[in-house]
Each structure stands twice: as C-alpha cells, then as structure tokens.
Task: inverse folding
C-alpha cells in the first residue's frame, strides 16, 4: 500500500511489533495495521490478547461507520478484513521481534519492567530493528540504557484514544541517529499523525502540562471546594475541553496516572505540582482504575 506523504521516502518501516495490548498498545497496533504495516501485538496471556483483539474490532467497526457512510456491507467488510489481515497476536515477545523493523513498547509505566523487557528484546531482535517506547513520563534515555542500540532508540508518544487523537510526540536522545529519528517521524506521518518534537524531559509537552492540571483538579476536590462532576462540567463548558479532568483521569487510567505522579514526585519531591494524592492512591488501592476496570471517579457499565 502506498504511503502518500512527503516523508514516505524515509519510511523504511514495514513490519511492527507492539508489546503491550492494553489501552495504548491495542490502539497503536490498530492504526499501524490500518496504514498498511504488518503488525504483531504481544501481551502476557492469551486471555489479555483476546480482549485486545475484540476491542480493536469494536474500534474498527466505529471507524468503518464513519468511513463508509453510504457504502454497502461489502466495502466495509473488505476494509475490516484488510486491516485484520495485517494484524497478528502473540504471547511470545522474543519470537515476535525477529522479523520486525520497529518495536513499540506500551507496557506498564514502570522503569524496571520496561528495562527488563528491552534488555531481552535487544538480544533477540535483528541489528536493523528500531526500538521505541510509548512511555508517558519516564525519560527515554533511562529506558534505552537497557540496550546496546541507543542509536536506534527513541520515543513515540501516542495519545488515548490512538485511532482518534492526531498528535504524536517524537523524542530523540543524544545517541539517536538522524536516520533513526527520520524513520520514526516518517512512520508517525504514515500513520496519519501530526508529529511534534520535544526534548527528553519528563512528560514531554502534553503530559508536562496535562498531568499537573489533572493533579490540581484532584487537590481541588480533596479540599472540598467542588465535586468531580461540577469540576468536569466547569472545564467542559467554561474552558471548552472535550472531557473534564475527572473524565479524562478515568479515561487515561488511574493506575497509569499514579505511576506518573509517583515517579515525578520521587525525582522532584519539593515540586508542588508533583505531590502524590491520597484520593488517587486510595482509588488505585481499591482497584478502581477508571473506565478500564468499570469504576474510578465515576462508575461505568
Ligand atoms: N475508536 C474508534 N472510534 C472512536 C473511539 C475509538 N476508541 N472513541 C470514540 N470514537 C468515535 C465515536 O464512535 C464517535 O463517532 P461518530 O462521530 O461517528 O459518532 C466519535 O469518535 C466521537 O466520539 P463520542 O461521541 O463518543 O465522544 P466525543 O465526541 O467526546 O469524542 C474523544 C471522544 C475524541 C475521546 C474526546 O472526548 C476527546 O478528545 N477527549 C479528550 C481525550 C484526551 O485528552 N486524550 C489525551 C489523554 S492524555 C494521553 O493520552 C497521554 C498520556 O500519556 C496519559
Ligand atoms: P494498560 O494497563 O491499559 O496496558 C498495559 C498492558 O501491558 C497490559 O495489557 C499488560 O498485561 C501488558 N504488559 C505489562 N507488562 C508486560 C510485559 N512485560 N510484556 C508484555 N506485556 C506486558 O496501560 P496503557 O494505558 O496502555 O499504558 C501503556 C503505556 O503507555 C504506559 O507506559 C503508559 O504510561 C503509556 N501511555 C498511556 C496513555 C494513557 O492514556 N493510558 C497515553 C499515552 C501513553
């Protein structure tokens, strides 16, 4: 399939392995497959992988409705079949990277777990394979130290929901070569994303602004100044945000948000923007992780 962007020249990436099939991994795998790449998506168990497959199918059905408003069933079916044909599922990360041009990691937001994974992948993947992390908050350079391929390592930070959000932050570390950076950027454009560059600083652009905003919303409620519902209504109708901060927290995942805030507060304990929140910690302890677990600040059916 032709990649019709001026950056296509640099897009040497045809086969992609996505490790982690949660909210982000399933979305990344979906958009990569939909733009003509051969994709293997990997997770720890068959059960998790099966859930990811069904959420990808649901998302594709929603896209198909929009893409083919007047089309017959046949056209829709062909699109779905083509995308799904590009996608395969696996629980064996080391085998899955063997023929991969690019590996995108989207597992739990924990430096040690990410390093352990990348160290194993580094030994299993061919020389040519580029590595990227979708981390929300961990410096790319810290993750890349687990490998011998810092020159072929970068950050590809997608946004949730990946099929709809148009932005991709592309991050390089000092060792990342120009060729690697250009390939990552071209891959993002081939996926239809608008790319921005940012230094390898905590939270890059979007999360450095968004996470303190969401944490401040929790502090406002912790002080008893307003309810989550009223804060959300206020930010949607008073500031034009598509979701209020509590809806967004539930959408992103409270565990992921807690990992981000905990990591930053450990690094900068005196930064008032990065203070851990008791309310958030309590919800996560009760396994109320947001939409993905059925309850967070709100309840979901
Ligand atoms: N896949 C496919 N289609 C989807 C979809 C998905 N996952 N989610 C929604 N849609 C479709 C719907 O079917 C609907 O289609 P129609 O227009 O044909 O009806 C359309 O998108 C709009 O959806 P909704 O009507 O349900 O809701 P909406 O208009 O509010 O849009 C939204 C949904 C795009 C998610 C919007 O609410 C939004 O932009 N929210 C903010 C999201 C955000 O800020 N994301 C960033 C989070 S931070 C992050 O990701 C970084 C990090 O590291 C933590
Ligand atoms: P998630 O909890 O929905 O999914 C994580 C998946 O990784 C799970 O299915 C888990 O089983 C799997 N996993 C964990 N360890 C693994 C391993 N060693 N090997 C294979 N699979 C493993 O989390 P998510 O929201 O998709 O976040 C994933 C990454 O993306 C995190 O680094 C997060 O910070 C980042 N991110 C999240 C968002 C968001 O809005 N949720 C946005 C951008 C980036």
Result:
């Amino acid at each position: 399939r032709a990649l019709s962007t001026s950056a296509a020249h640099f897009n040497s990436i045809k086969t992609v392995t996505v490790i982690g099939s949660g909210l982000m991994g399933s979305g990344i795998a979906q958009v990569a497959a939909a733009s003509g790449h051969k994709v293997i998506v990997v997770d720890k168990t068959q059960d998790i992988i099966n859930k990811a497959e069904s959420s990808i199918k649901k998302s594709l059905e929603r896209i198909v409705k929009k893409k083919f408003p007047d089309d017959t069933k046949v056209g829709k079916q062909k699109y779905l079949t083509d995308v799904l044909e590009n996608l395969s599922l696996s629980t064996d990360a080391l085998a899955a990277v063997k023929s991969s041009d690019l590996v995108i990691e989207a597992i739990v937001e924990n430096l040690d777990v990410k390093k352990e994974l990348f160290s194993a992948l580094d030994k299993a993947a061919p020389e040519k394979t580029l590595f990227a992390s979708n981390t929300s908050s961990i410096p790319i350079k810290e993750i890349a130290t687990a490998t011998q391929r810092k020159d072929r390592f970068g950050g590809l930070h997608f946004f949730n929901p990946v099929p709809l959000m148009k932005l991709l932050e592309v991050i390089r570390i000092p060792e990342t070569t120009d060729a690697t950076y250009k390939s990552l950027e071209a891959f993002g454009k081939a996926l239809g994303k608008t790319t921005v560059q940012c230094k390898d600083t905590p939270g890059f652009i979007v999360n450095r602004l968004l996470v303190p905003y969401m944490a401040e919303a929790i502090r406002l409620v912790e002080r008893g100044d307003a309810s989550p519902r009223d804060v959300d209504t206020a930010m949607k109708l008073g500031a034009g945000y598509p979701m209020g901060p509590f809806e967004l927290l539930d959408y992103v995942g409270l565990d992921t948000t807690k990992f981000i805030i905990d990591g930053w507060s450990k690094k900068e304990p005196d930064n008032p923007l990065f203070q851990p929140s008791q309310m958030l910690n309590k919800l996560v302890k009760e396994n109320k992780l947001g939409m993905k677990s059925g309850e967070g600040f709100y309840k979901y059916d």
Notes: The first strand starts at residue 15 and ends at 19. The chain has a mean pLDDT of 94.
